[in-house]
Structures are given as C-alpha cells and as structure tokens.
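Re-run with default settings, no changes from the original entry. Doing this only to confirm the output is reproducible before filing.
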Amino acid sequence: MVSVIIPAFNAAAFLAEAVGSVLSQSVEDWELIIVDDGSTDGLTPRLADTLAAADSRVRAMHTPNRGVSAARNAGMAAARGEWLAFLDADDALRGDALQLMLEAAGKSGAEIVCAAQLSFRGDIPQPGVAAAGMTVLSPDEAIEGILYQRRGPDCSACGKLFDRRLAATEPFSEGIRYEDLDWFYRVFSLARRVAWLDAPLYFYRSNPGSFTHTWTEARADVLDVCDRLCAWAALRGEAMLAAASDRRLSAAFNVYGLLAANPGSATERTQTAGRCLGIIRRQRRKSLLNPRVRLKNKLGILISYAGGPWLLRRLSRIVYGTGRDQNSVKQSGSSEATEGRR
C-alpha cells in the first residue's frame, strides 16, 4: 500500500536506523526502496544490499550520483504502492506513523497527509504514542499556511503521505538545493484535500554541519526557487501571491544574514547581497501591513526601515540565524530545515 523511498548518499552511519524505523511500523503492507545515490564511501551500497536481502519488502537501487532529487525521482519511478512516503537516510518514522497517516487519508479523503516533525540529536526519540488531532484543509489553505510559515504543514517532502498517482506527475527538479520548496506547491495544488496531523510522526536529525547550517553559493538557489514560486502564485490570485512574496522575503532575510556571518569580497556575494536587499525593500511594506505575516518578518522589516544595512545584517544574524535556518525545529510545522540539507 505504501512505497517508502530513502535516498542515500554516504549514509552508512544512520541508514540502518532509518530502515529499522520502517521495519517496526505497526502496518506491514509497505515496500521500502533504498536509492543509493552513487555513494563513494564503499559502505552505503553494501549496507543497502544487506538490508534488502534481510527482508523481501526492501529493495536497493544503485544509481550514479545526481543528487537527492534524482534519487527520489528514481524511487518514484520504481514504486508500486498506492501511496508514497519520503524518508531521509539519517531520519526516522515513529512506529505508528504510516498507520495514522493511512487512517487519516481514509477518514478525510485527502490525497496528501502531513504530520508534525520533531528535531533531535543523538538517539532517535521514543515518545509515548499520542493521539493525533486532524485538520482537513483545501490545497490553497495548506499552501498559504506553509508559505506564511505558520503552525501546520511544512514544505518538506518528508513526514507526509502522497497519493502516488498525484505525486508522480510532478518530478523533483534536479540540480538545485531547495528541492522541497520548489516541489511542494506544485503537488499540493493537484490535491482536492490535505490532512494535517498535529502529532510528531517524523523524527528529523539536526546536524550542525549540514547544508542548511553553513553558507555556500548554492544557498542562493532559494532566491531563484522563490522567484518561480511567485510567478506560479501570481496565476492563483492576490492571496496566494501575497503569501509567496512573503516567503521570498523570509528567504532574502535568511540569505542576507548568512552572508553577513560569512563575510567576503567575492563579486557573487556582493551581487547576492544586493539581490536580497532589493527583495526586502520591494516587499517590506506589503508584508508589514499583512496581518498574516509572522512576527519575525515584521521585526525584520521594522529594523530594515530604521537601521539601514548594518542593523539589518545584525538582525538577520540574530533572528534568522547564522548557523541555522528559521524554524529548523519542525514540531510546530513550517520550516525550510530540510530544503537541500543533503
């Protein structure tokens, strides 16, 4: 019934734990597809084959290294289940995650079921089994809530159940680092209903050395992704465009803060900083007057008016984080913590 897809690149340290969390699910009608994304550690491919040999429901695929989007696309193409679930190789599912999401899909008629996520370090959490309250949303309600980064679903592909017939029509974009933010709205817009479960069913391992905790030029991908998002949102009406534009403002604050924390004189950094400031100045008035915009953005806007670039850099570093993306603990919902963190 469910195809769980795990992309794995040099993931030997935690892959067995991720697979173990699937093996221990309270429902048994699933298949697990491990996509070894051209690992170079000499360990991950062998471990994937060993795990697959131990249980007939587990399959291992080996592909050239092309990134997490390509690995997920390969897994979707091979999937045979009615539903798709994505699990990163260093994360884990709560033991009843698939059962609760399948039950929610049956009760609500939703083609997408989203669960809260819990960030952890070290050992996988062992929380008590808590009842999950369910809210049913329209696609636009879900997308707008995610873009405003409110409590509820987030943009991560993980911690969710997707109708395969729906999700497989929209492949992940390859060659970018913010693949989840680029993908989620395209898939959500195809659904009739989206269900939200407010219990943490997906456990996300926080890694201070991961992509989202450091600056590279690839971080600027989020600005391009948000440009495409805004172009799409403009076709959905003013309410959706306002939400998408505010999400682009958040991205500009975050990238600008990371640039400030990692100073350099390179031309690319100067251009990226200028691009962020342009977005902030163009969008700040509308977001300041928008009652749905979160307090963090409004605080950033006020500082941008009052203090100029120096204080704006300082605010971005303090409020949005120089070593961590905003809302990276996802139990409360919205986050960009897994966008491109592989």
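The longest strand covers residues 194-205. The beta strands are 2-8, 30-37, 58-63, 83-86, 92-93, 112-120, 134-137, 160-163, 194-205.
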